[in-house]
Amino acid sequence: MLDTLPLELLNMILSNVSSESVLGVESGLIQLSSKITSHRDLKQICEVCTRLWDCATPHLYRCLVFTAANSSFAELTAAVKAIPTRYAKYIRELELRIPIHHRACAHCWCCDELWSVEDDASVPEELLCDYFEGIDDERTYGEFLDDQLRSFRWNLGQCIPDITLSSNEFSLLRKQRKIESLIIHTDIYCDHGVGSVDLVQFPDLRSLSWKGLNKYSDFECLKDCIRAHGNQLVSLTLDLVDWYRAKDIWTDEFRRQSDEAMPDNFLVQRIMNPKAEDEKMILQSLKYLDLSAISFEIAAIDMPVLFNTESLRTLKLRKCIGSLKWLELVSSSGKLTELKSFELVLTNCGPINTMKTICNFIERAPKLEILCLMLRRPINWESLINTICRCSSLTRLVMHGLADEGNQILGGEDHKASQLQILQARSLCKLLHIRATGKAMVSMYYSNIRDPSFPPLEIYKFAKWAFSADGLPNLTVLAWGDFSHEGHYSEHNDLLCRCGTGYRRLNPSDISLWDLVNDNMDMLAACPFAEFTDLSIDDFM
Question: Which residues contact 464 (CB under 8 A, 6 or more apart)?
């Protein structure tokens, strides 16, 4: 039937199929893995007839993700060589990635062979040259075009070689000025002389995600980007990992280069607002904002205006100093926000009025659909749940209450039934996640030396209530554990589903239930407690 449709209509249909071709290397063999059904569907369409092949192939190769099972750039080079060069002209989105639990960084104490800073800069540089030029040399007959890419993702957690994003003539992306989206995930321990980055060279940039920026040059690059492209940025993600470390690095270099007075908050006052003192910067197009390990102290009053908070659709604040002050300022303005998604992670004990501040902010977001909270105890759950029940548009809820750091397992499952009793009125709840921090689950496993697929008995008591007639009537899946960081702790987690009047574990044949879990994985992964720099291969059994 598809092969009879007009070409224009067929292209419209195929363009709405999300495709992500993932190429990896395992045991020396190149493998093309279809991670999502839509990509598999596109491959099947290509096999029907020549006409559909010609139409579907550009969509099939539009987004390519090159991944390896370990920190070997040679494997990534081999992966790209597996792509027939005649398809290079279709590539619009390109990602280099290594799964978090396979990464080897300069700071990984658990690795037998560590890359020195010099190794991180030089050896991969030659391989990456081969990597990119493999689709840009004479073999492609010029088919890899200038300004072809729209998205580039460095998702390796390692230092960026100078040839990748720098502004010099050897930069591999120097001819890709139409890039609209950049994701940079680097190592916070990279040497100051490694990995020059220039974002100004991408005039169409709309989305920027940078995790691990720490060098003085990184912040200068960000400042230049905000000055040049700030008004057009729609999405911004920044993760400094360690605020105090980043502050010290910037301060030391600033003192060496300048006699000016030291700013109270370097990031807000010198980097995010690089204009003259009487001309405030406003990121007027911003709709998505995700900030981690950043301080708003001294400068909190500038935050709502700088980030155009009233117009944001998504706001995520993780382990940011002074977050509550920002929320207070927004609430006290008396204006409603357009927020549809809000995530807040507070790992330090807050003031007595913490919950009041959070509830007031939630009430200023009448369109809120997703709410994810991780708060340090004590927590006024009754006040929070009463506020949540008044959010008529809410469809997803994550509440993670941290006990003291010596006991990071969510305790008191026997009390959660009474806490959640009021949610029976929200009978549409299908997926409920009871959080536990990964590190605590690992410690529990090794200390008890038992099968980690069996969580504490308290969770079974809670599951018995949740799936009973007195519990949540439409609950389909109960998730227990830590699903953050690409499922790093997945072997310690547990997924339970309804079975008659009781419950059981999910099995591989429960396709619809797995679809429910996978469709909501972003919710399950929300509010991570551990930093990605703290993850260890010892977390696996």
Answer: 502, 503
Contact (Cβ atoms closer than 8 angstroms) between residue 437 and residue 403: no
pTM equals 0.80
| Contact residues for 116 (Cβ-Cβ < 8 A; gap 6+) | 106
Mark out the alpha helices in 61-116 (DSSP H runs). 73-81
Angle, alpha carbons 292-296-297 (nearest 5°): 135
DSSP assignment string, 312-346:
-SEEEEES-BTHHHHHHHHHHT-PPP--SEEEEE-
Angle at 143 between CA 140 and CA 144, to 5 degrees: 95
Q: Which residues pair with 391 in a beta bridge?
A: none
Phi/psi at 329 (5° precision): -65, -40
Distance, in Å, from the CA atom of 290 to the CA atom of 272, rounded to the nearest integer, reads: 14
d(CA 252, CA 16): 50
Give residues with Cβ within 8 angstroms of 417, minimum separation 6: 462, 465, 466, 471
- For every one of its 541 residues, what pLDDT tens digit does the chain have, with 9 covering 90 and above? 556 666 666 666 666 655 454 444 443 333 333 333 455 666 666 656 776 767 777 777 888 887 766 555 666 667 666 777 777 788 888 888 776 655 554 433 333 333 333 344 344 455 555 545 555 554 444 456 788 999 999 888 888 877 788 877 777 788 899 999 999 998 888 777 667 789 999 999 999 999 998 899 999 999 999 999 999 999 999 999 999 999 999 999 999 998 888 988 899 888 987 555 555 667 889 999 999 999 988 866 777 778 888 899 999 999 999 899 889 988 988 889 999 999 999 877 666 678 899 999 999 999 999 999 888 777 787 888 889 888 889 888 887 766 544 444 444 444 555 556 555 555 578 888 877 766 666 666 555 544 444 455 677 888 888 898 888 888 999 988 888 776 666 677 889 999 988 999 999 899 999 999 988 988 888 887 766 666 655 554 4
Q: Quickly tell me which residue has 């790992």 as its tokens.
A: 347
Closest CA to 160 of 202, 200, 191, 132: 191
Query: Buried b / exposed e across 443-468, counting CB within 10 Å, b at 16+?
Result: ebbeeeeeebeebbebbeebbebbbb
Query: CA angle at residue 192 from 187 to 196, to 5 degrees?
Result: 80
* Nearest CA-CA partner of 205 in 274, 160, 152: 152
Strands (E), 186-260: 207-211, 235-239
The letter for the amino acid at 206 is R
Q: Is 376 exposed, middle or buried (0-12, 13-18, 19+ CB in 10 A)?
A: middle
Question: Which ranges constitute the DSSP H helices of 280-412?
Answer: 303-306, 323-332, 354-363, 381-389
The C-alpha atoms of residue 319 and residue 321 are separated, in whole angstroms, by 6
Q: Which amino acid is at 477?
A: V
Helix (H, G, I), strand (E, B) or coil at 132: helix
d(CA 344, CA 375): 8
Q: What are the domain boundaries of the chain?
A: 61-205, 206-402, 430-541
